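Pair request: fold both.
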Amino acid sequence: MRAREDTSMIPERYASYEKTVTLGAANFTCVPGDKAANLEKIELTIHEAASQGIDIVAFPEEALTGCGGCSPCLEGAEHCDYHADLAETVPGPSTERVAELAKKLDIYVAFGMIERDPHDPSVLYNAAALVGPEGIQGTYRKLHLGSLPWVTEGITFKPGTAIPIFETRFGPIGLIICYDFWFNPELTRLLALKGARVILNCCASFDAPLKRENMIGTTCTRAQENLVYTLSANQVSGSDRPESYAAGAVDEGRSGHYAGNSVIAGPSFPRFAEPLAVAGPAEELISATVSFEKLHRWENIFPWREWRATRLSATSKLIASEFEKLVHGP
């Protein structure tokens, strides 16, 4: 099936945005509990990204603080003082500092952090902040929190209540965090339906057999099935990571080491999606320059968003009603 013979494949709603973007993903080692050290590392990486011509750079989940299982949270059945002390509201000191640098270097930055609810200081979120040349764009708060025996974040944090997209000069983009991306494909689909063409997955995925293949495969699949560019930025474990703050403190049968293997992917026809850049297990910054004209060329061949609102609208309503039944019953 051939694409329509248009001089430009860009739909009118996206015509005012830039036609290409260079994406960057940081394979990043955190210093657990040391925001000052992590913020300095984030800033150094942003400088490096800008020097390479990267337009949007993403850091892992909780890049500002480090993350993992927490014995005090487990014992107290709620977030501990350690996490409360690391939390910030947004806007706050860290987001304002990174936003200032982003404005200076003309770059967008997504990074994971612990966000304190501005209306209820006792509530903490596992969040990803987006800042850019325009300032602080906002945060996405993780919806699917991991549970025991794997991690204690379901005790430490409350789930978010929104699925936002964020305006940039490259068009709307979506943020997503780890479990939300790896095990819940409907969230990436919703972000794409809302207009996002780039989806950034800030993650902290542990090493395991075939993890590299799984991360590449899933990031590629999300790109292909939604006709978007996807990026997974993952943590890398460092030698100074205390054992008491590892997943092994909760479940000795599981690795407490983060896998790295950050990935950038995009759709392709007639082939399936392929990784555009893949990191290894150590710290590094990967990048890929992608074309939105190419993206919309594939959408002209397979206009699934248009179908969802037109000839497949009844199917969309059926799927929505089935989800509703699962939550509230028939």
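--- second member of the pair ---
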Amino acid sequence: MKLWLRTILWIVLSFIFVQTVYSKRNEKAQPYSSKQNRTMKKIFLCSSFADVASILSETVSSSLRGKTVAFIPTASIHEEYTQYVEDGKDALRTLGLTIKEVEITQFDKNQITKILNDCDCIYVSGGNTFFLMQELRKTGTDKLIKEQVEMGKLYIGESAGTIILAPNIEYAKKMDDYLTLTPNFNDFTGLGIIDFYPVVHFNSFPFEEATRNIINEYGHLPLKPITNQQAIVITGDAVLILGKTSKT
């Protein structure tokens, strides 16, 4: 082979080698994509927290004792019956959690942001789903919760606090009065943190008929019915329904 051909071949091969090495090094130096960096979601959804609190303690990866929970009771403030709010608090205390109550209609966004940032987990109680969503939007708490959950903070939702995570909450009209407290409510978009629709209090008093109506009318949606004795546990992309099944 002539010298000039060997020289050209050597230059070409050297260039290919250098480019390959540089490409490999650059590949290693690239930061992880947002998908790779995504923190694992930790979500516990239920109908009646006091009935399933033991499931939470059995499924979380670390002890809850000594940790703080931002407790949002806002959905219940216009309800006649609110014993479930106190029952939920008692159950949280039994697990060793310290409660920081934040009724969002009484706090400004900066205060809410600080409380949610400082607490180890977030609890959203039951009540009127539409009033809750209205106030979450007014205060900007909807976005704060979504950010915190996506960062891996444990979210505990009870009844209305469960429903709001769905892509859309219109199906809850079968269970909740959406006209009295929120007469101008017309945007049924949920937080969209989950891609399914929990049907809380399934076959549970006094919602037996309402929940069956939801199943019949919204059967085209990916519904997940849960009784008062069941919970939906989400860890990353894994979704489990745990607890006792309903009696038909």
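Observation on the second member. The beta strands are 42-46, 68-72, 98-101, 121-124, 154-158, 197-199, 223-225, 230-235, 238-243.
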